User: Fold these one by one.
Assistant:
Number 1:
Amino acid sequence: MLGLPSTTEVGKRIPKEAFYRNLKLDKRTRDEFVSLIDRITIANSVKPSTANLRDGRKVHEILVLLMTLKGCEVPYRAIEAIAKGNQHRLVFRIEGVGATLVVHGGTHASDTIERIVLRGEDLDAAWNSIVAQVALGTEDGKDVDARIAAEKRRIELQKEIAALDAKCRKEKQIGKRNELFAKLREKEAELNALEKGE
C-alpha cells in the first residue's frame, strides 16, 4: 500500500470493537466507530526488520492502517482516538475517499498522496518525512514541527488580513478606519516576514 516495500505488508484485519472497547471514548467518538467505520486493516508495518531503516530514538514502528468507511464521511474523532491510544506512529489511508492522514501535533490530511517515500536513515527521520509529505506536500522532514507551525500561522494571518481588509472597507469613521488599516499593515508585514523565513 502507498508504494511501500512488499516486505512491510501485513494485511491483518483488526476488529474495530477492539479499539473502542479498550479506549476511553466519549459518546460521539464511539458513535463514529459504529456508524462511520466498516473495517480497519493493518496494511503495512515499517520497522527495522521490514524496511532498510535503523530503529529511531522515539519511533520504533510505523503502521499504515487501511480504513474502509460505510459512507464518505471521514471519522476524524475516531482517528485521533486511535492515534492517541496507540504507541506506534500511524498513517491512516481512507479507502474510497482517497485521503491519507497522520496525527502529529494535530490531524493532517492529504487527498493527493498515492505513494509514501521512506526518506531518512532511521525511523525518526522517516516519520518526520511522512508527516511532511502529508502536511506540507514535501519529502523534506527537517524541522517539520516548526514548518507546520509556520504554515498554520500563515493560514491564520491570511484569514485575519482578509477580515481586516473587509472591515476597513466598510468602516465609515476615519479614526477607526485608520486604526484598522494600521492593524492590517501590521499583519501583512508579519505575513511577509513569515513567507521570507525571517
Number 2:
Amino acid sequence: MAQAKQGDTVQIHYTGKLPDGTVFDSSVEREPLSFALGAGQVIPGFETAVMGMTPGDTKTATIDSNQAYGPRRDEMVLVVEREKIPADIPLGVGQQLQLQGPQGQALPVVVTEVSDAEVTLDANHPLAGEDLIFDIELVAIQ
C-alpha cells in the first residue's frame, strides 16, 4: 500500500489535544481534512507526523510548540488607548478583532483586557507556546 509522501494530497481525521487532555479541535464528526503534503497548509509538525503513513494507519503524535504555532511572543501583545478604537465597536474580553498590518494584511487579535483608558490586544495565535497532541487517522491518499 502507498505511503504518504511529499506532494501527495491526503485525507485525515484528527483530534487535537493539549497536554492536559483538553480537546481544541477534531474532524471526527465532520468530513476528513484534506491537504497537500509539503504545501504548508497545516503546521509543520502535523505534516511530518502524516508522512509515511498508509491509508488506515492511526497514530498519536506530540508536536513541540516550535513545530506548531511557535512560541508565545510578548511583542505580539499591544496596549492601545481606548479612544483610538471607534466607539461603535463594543469591546469585551475574548472578542476577536482585526487590525491592519504594515503591508495592509489583516491581523487577527483577541481582546484580553479592557479598562476605561486602555485595551490590551493579543495577536499571538491562541495555541502559541503550546505543545500539541494529535490522534491521526490517514483516511486516503488521493
Number 3:
Amino acid sequence: MLREQITEAMKDAMRAREPETLSTVRMILAGIKDKDIAARPSGNASGIGDPEILLLLQTMVKQRRESVALYRQGNRADLVAKEESEIAVIERFLPRQMDSAETDAAITAVIAESGAASIKDMGKVMAALKARYSGQMDFSTVGPAVKAKLGG
C-alpha cells in the first residue's frame, strides 16, 4: 500500500511540475527498488513490504538530518534548504511521530504489560515497542528512556 502511495505521489509531482518533489520521490522509489533486488535471493520475489519501506524512509530522514547538521557547521545554507525540503517530502509517507508525552506513556504501558522489572528485561520491552510503534517513535531516544524507567 505504501509503495502505491509513493508511486501516486510521483505521478502527482509530475502533473504539478514540482521538480524538487519529483526528484525526492524518485530517490525513494530507487531505494525501494534496491531493497527489492537485495531481497530476491532470500526468496522474496514480490519485493519488500510496508515495514521495510517505513524503515528505509526513517533511515533516509535520519541521513538527511545528519547532513543538515554538517551543512550548518559548514555554513552551506543552500544545501541545508535542499536537505530539509527532502525531509519534508519523505516525512509525508511516514506515520505521525509520537511526542514525548505519548512516547513516555507507551513505554510505561509496555513495561507494565510485559512485567518488566529490571534492566535485564530491556530487550523484551524494546521488541514490544518496535512491534507496536514502528515508524511512530524515534528509537534512538526511546532506548535511554526505557533504560531509565527500568532503573539502569
Number 4:
Amino acid sequence: MNLPMSLIAGDVALGRDVRIVGFVNLYGCSIGDESFIGPFVEIQRGVAVGRRVKIQSHSFLCSGVTIEDEAFIGHGVMFTNDVFPRSTNSDGTLKSAGDWQESATLVGRRASIGSNATILCGVTIGENAMIGAGSVVTRDVPPGAVVAGNPARILRYLTEKS
C-alpha cells in the first residue's frame, strides 16, 4: 500500500478491504476487514481493531487498546495506557519499557466515541455505548449507556430504536 507520507510497518496485519487515508502511522497492530482509518491517525503496537470499524482523523490509539467490531472512533479521540505517567524514575533516570505497566482498554462492539473524547486507560466501554464529544471517560461505561462530560456521567440508555 503506497500512501503519501504514511508509515505502515511490515508487522501490521491488515484485513480484507481496509481503507486507509494518507498521513497515518501504523505499527505492530491489526486492523479488521472493511475498516476505515482516516488521515493523521496513529495506531501503536498491540492494538487490535475489529471489523468494519471507522476511525476518524487525528485519533491516537496507544498500545493496550482493543476496539471491537463496528465501533466508531470520532475525530481527535485520545486513548491513554499509563495510570501514572512520568518521563523519569524517582532517581531522575529516563523511564524505559520496564519502568511502567500498561493498562488495557476495551471498546465494545458498535460503541461510538465522539470527537475529542479522552479515554483513560483501564476502562471498558460497553457494547452499543455512546460517548459524547469532548468527554473524559474515567471509569467503565455500561452497555447501551450514553455518557458525556468531564468526568463522563451516564445521561440515559439507548433504546432498540436509537
